[in-house]
Amino acid sequence: MQQAGRTGNTLPRRRGQAGEVFRLAGPAIVENLLVTLVQYVDTAMVGSLGAVATAAVAVNASPMWLLSGIMTSVGVGGMALAARFYGAGDYDGAERVCGQMAACAAVLSALCMAAVCLIANRLPVWMGAEAEVAPLASDYLRIVALGFIPNYMGIVLANALRAAGNMRTPMLLTGLANVLNVIGNTLLIFPSRTVRIWGFVFPMWGAGLGVQGAAIATALSTAVSGILMILALVCGRRTHMRLRGKYLRPQAALLMRMLRVGVPAALERIAINVGQILFARIVASFGTAQLAAHHLAITVESLGYMPAFGIQTAATALVGQSLGAKRPDLAEEYGRICNRMGIACMCLASALMVLFARPLMAIFTRDEQVQRIGAWLLCFCAAEEPFFGVAIVMSGALRGAGDTRVPFYISLCTMWCVRLVVAYVFGILMGLGIYGAWMGMVADLAVRGVWLHIRFVRGKWKLITV
Fold first, then answer.
1. Residue 27 DSSP SS3
2. What is the mean pLDDT of residues 337-352?
3. Which residues pair with 196 in a beta bridge?
4. Contact present, 271 and 279 (Cβ < 8 Å)
5. Would you say 202 and 189 are in contact if contact means Cβ atoms under 8 Å apart?
6. Beta-carbon count within 10 A of 137 CB
7. Cβ-based burial of 13 (10 A; exposed 0-12, middle 13-18, buried ≥19)
8. What is the separation, in whole angstroms, between the first and last Cα of the chain?
9. How far apart are the C-alpha atoms of 337 and 317, rounded to whole Å?
10. What is d(CA 202, CA 188) in angstroms, rounded to the nearest whole number?
11. Strand ranges, E, within 95-143
């Protein structure tokens, strides 16, 4: 945020505010698209091995979202607090928060890795994987877990950079992870073969490890990206946040302030992700083909809402910095601009998913049944995308203000009282299968978006101290 934006008595012109949102949101959008591309590459390459291989990756998706959600919540608390310090010009305070984020991330990521390695053999079974899917799913989970510590530390510390307005470094490192993942997949998933590119024919070595190869490539690429993220903070310029060893020791006062924001955010992610696990368990009961279609449709849909997540990141940073500069009016205007941008992006995504549903599914699988089911599911997505965009962006704006408790209650209610109930009634009791289950997802996101928008408009978040 520009210094003039902190001290001026009048609200900056809307054009300047929109430009600031674009400046921060642009790299964040690209980064989120690149994150999704990693999932796309994995899914497309594994999908070429058949429905069983796709289901082996799919059954692990919800538990992995749960773990990444927990780690992201550490970054949420730290980012909200660091943005306040940064907006107030207290760079030393912001760096102290960065040190606490690193220490918490190291401990929690190690615990996550240990827990996953212990239950990797049983988790796919608990998730409802069929007998032919479970062994591959266990192998995938165990291998990916080996990269958790650097990966999750990088995810958390990226939020420290974002709090200072540095969106470019996380974007570049995510791009590197994509390149490494594609190379790793190419060499590890498939066996040695002859490749034809632009008329040139040449032999290419391959390990032929299938699903295990995809897991190794993912673990290595995300670990390298995380290590480089840590180094970027250790060696970074002061204005873009630095990680200093002297701030790694626990500081009770700062930790408590981070926890006041981070714990409700963590509980929100846990409530959502546990609900998603149960939702995936309902879907898995419909059979391998419907589970594979569900996973592929979610993967395709994720590309559509990545721009909204980029705008969410900008909203969190700008609202937090504005409140740190004692400008709640500016914070509110940034939130409204971000919300409008998010809705526009999601409406465009809805149109594209309806128009290109079948071709998009065909990218990831040659199975005709999976393609057909997945294409119908993408049409379901189109109904909820604008509401989901509001939910994503408004939750980011509220997090920047430190308002995470009420959004937790909202997400808890919509996931457990709307999505799961509707999915069970329509999907199982009424026999509509995967289509009935997805009715529950659409209803959940629609109600959540409207509710979070009302929360932001009422403005009680302006009175919250972080």
1. helix
2. 92
3. 201
4. no
5. no
6. 26
7. exposed
8. 19
9. 14
10. 17
11. none
Helix residue ranges, H only, 202-327: 211-234, 252-284, 288-324
Are 145 and 216 a contacting pair, CB within 8 Å? no
Q: What is the C-alpha to C-alpha distance for residues 356 and 107, in angstroms, rounded to an integer?
A: 44
**Locate tokens 């939020």: which residue?**
159
User: What is the pLDDT at residue 33?
Assistant: 77
Q: How does DSSP classify residue 417?
A: I
CA neighbours closer than 13 Å in the CB half-sphere of residue 394? 27
Q: Residue 200 phi/psi, 5° resolution?
A: -95, 135
Q: Which of left, alpha, beta for 210 (phi over 0: left; psi -120 to 50: alpha)?
A: left
Cβ(238)–Cβ(164) under 8 Å? Answer: no
Q: For residues 116 and 398, what is the distance between their CA atoms, to the nearest angstrom?
A: 32
Residue 26 CB partners (closer than 8 Å, separation 6+)? 167, 310
Q: Are 375 and 357 in contact (CB under 8 A)?
A: yes
Q: Is the alpha carbon torsion for 277, 107, 153, 97 positive or negative? A: positive
Phi-psi region of 50 (alpha: psi -120 to 50; beta: other; left: phi over 0): left
Structure tokens given for 246? 């002297």
CB-count burial class (<10 Å; 0-12, 13-18, 19+) for 235 = exposed
63, 66, 214, 60: which is closest to 137 by C-alpha? Answer: 60
pTM above 0.85, yes or no: no
Q: Is the alpha carbon torsion for 371, 372, 374, 379 positive or negative?
A: positive
Confidence of residue 8 (pLDDT cuts 50, 70, 90): very low
The pLDDT score that the predictor gives to residue 388 is 93
> Encoding tokens for residue 18?
């929109």
Closest CA to 294 of 5, 89, 111, 54: 54
**CA quadruple 57, 62, 63, 66: dihedral positive or negative?**
positive
In this predicted structure, the answer to whether residue 7 has a pLDDT above a threshold of 80 is no
Q: From CA 114, how far away is CA 142, in angstroms rounded?
A: 10
In sequence order, the β-bridge partners of residue 258 are none
Neighbouring-strand partners of residue 193 = 204
Residue owning tokens 């999915």: 423
Question: b/e string for 283-322 if b means 16 or more Cβ within 10 A?
Answer: bbebbbbbbbbbbbbbbbbbbbbbbbbbbbbbbbbbbbbb
Half-sphere exposure (Cβ direction) of 363: Cα atoms closer than 13 Å: 17
Mean local confidence (pLDDT), 315-336: 93
* pLDDT band at residue 4 using 50, 70 and 90 as cut-offs: very low
What is the sign, positive or negative, of the torsion defined by CA atoms of 147, 152, 157, 159?
A: positive
